[in-house]
Amino acid sequence: xENDFSFIGQCSELVKSKGIEARAYQINIIRSIINGGxxxxxxxxxxxxxxxxxxxxxxxxxxxxKALMLAPTKPLSxxxxxxxxxxxxxxxxxxxxxxxxxxxxxxxxxxERARIIIATPQTVANDLKSSNLDLDQFGIAIFDEVxxxxxRYAYTYVADKCKEKNIKILGLTASPGNSRDKIMELIDTxxxxxxxVRTPEDPDVAPYVKExxxxxxxVEKGETVERISSLLKGLIxxxxxxxxxxxxxxxxxxxxxxxxxxxxxxKNIDQxxxxxxxxxxxxxxxxxxxxxxxxxxxxxxxxxxxxxxIDSIRNKEKKNRSVQSMLKNHVFLKAVGIAETxxxxxxxxxxxxxxxxxxTENHIDNKIIIFAQYRYxxxxxxxxxxxxxxxxxxxxxKKEGVTQDxxxxxxxxxxxxxxxxxxxxxxxxxGLDIPSVDTVIxxxxxxxxxxxxxxxxxxxxxxxxxxxxxxxxDTKDETYFMVSSFREKKMYDMxxxxxxxxxxxxxxxxxxxxxxxxx
Length: 519
What we know:
InterPro entries: DEAD/DEAH_box_helicase_dom, Helicase_ATP-bd, Helicase_C-like, P-loop_NTPase. Pfam families: DEAD (PF00270), Helicase_C (PF00271). It comes from Candidatus Mancarchaeum acidiphilum. Keywords: ATP-binding, Helicase, Hydrolase, Nucleotide-binding. This protein is α/β, with parallel strands linked by helices. Helix content is about 50%, strand content about 15%. The protein has 18 helices and 13 strands. Strand 12 (about 440), helix 17 and strand 13 form a beta-alpha-beta unit. Helix 1 packs across helix 2, helix 5 packs across helix 6 (about 155-165) and helix 11 (about 305-315) packs across helix 13 (about 330-345). The relative contact order is 0.11.
């Protein structure tokens, strides 16, 4: 086994590899990419996917072809642009960061001259549609965070154009999907015939994976939250019973039915024929959905997030009959009254107290990212932490009116130590150059294995990482935590089975046309 990158021959001269450790798994993956067809690389966060991309690009350039590298966001594209300029031993002007801000005429000249183009998929898709970009001279297209290449996302369009030109495709991700169907859709979209997957437990990877300690913190609902949620639960079950009575709901009790089964009721209602019968079903169904969201917010997020949601319903200009009825219901109004009184008295969900205690007692000087689902939860967390003498800042997306420049400033301030706690929505999970942190806290569990892996990947890159998950007892939090853990394990099992099935398929006698074998 080689202990350096010399196995790729003269291609290695295009990479500034001095001082870079040649790891066995990287060598094997690079070899597989060069000699294989379209390749999907599944590798835990922080284990050098960018370096694998760099060597794949170097071999493409040596072969006289151009390279395309795509990333889902502009900041991540900029990160790759800087990495390639520092790692590749070529003229820096040969590497183009393509943005929509460049004038069309200038863009076309720069695209024709560049040997490597780095951009978001939307930018490349637009240039392909307008015929400003010609893929004829390209030998490889690299799709970072490739799990996004499903549905109508721009990755899919660019992948189709690359397949038409017989360009080798390389997909990079830490988490390819939650289900076999999604993974297979990804494989079909990219015409993948070669998979390289490593789990944190694999022998060649394990020495480089820093330990990540995952700790569950169980929290009681508390008396106030329990009173509010009990009232809401009784109302929900009243309307579940109505749906049960007309044959649309299999259960009468809230704890007996999953959120997925409740959503399925909506699909069944869509197929109903009788208009009066359908109207009654819709009335009860919308009632259940609105109340269920309110119930989940107060039990797992907080009293302020619950009230923010109620205020958003109250402030709607147009209210359907279900909402109008709910806002007048005496049981509902009693629950809201308890919440309003609690806020006036400074009460919140016990999770907030547990969060402050966790940080102040164990991680007060650490760099921390707290992930939460909802912007109103994030606002409250930031308020509570800052009132406790901690330094926290919200990190939210464009939907909340925050520009990309403002986002980058927040990250810069975080990196520079102006504050040490970043409270983020899903925007903090991928696609932005957020520095590695000491501690990641899930304010609530999530069921997506992709998002869970991305969140956990924010810590444990250079040192032991601490991961905490706040779980409210006897709520959906407990179910979601178990589902997430199961799906992460299932994801690796599925991708390994799919890899084996691909390996059993007959391989072409030679690499794809226009792709040279290097040894």
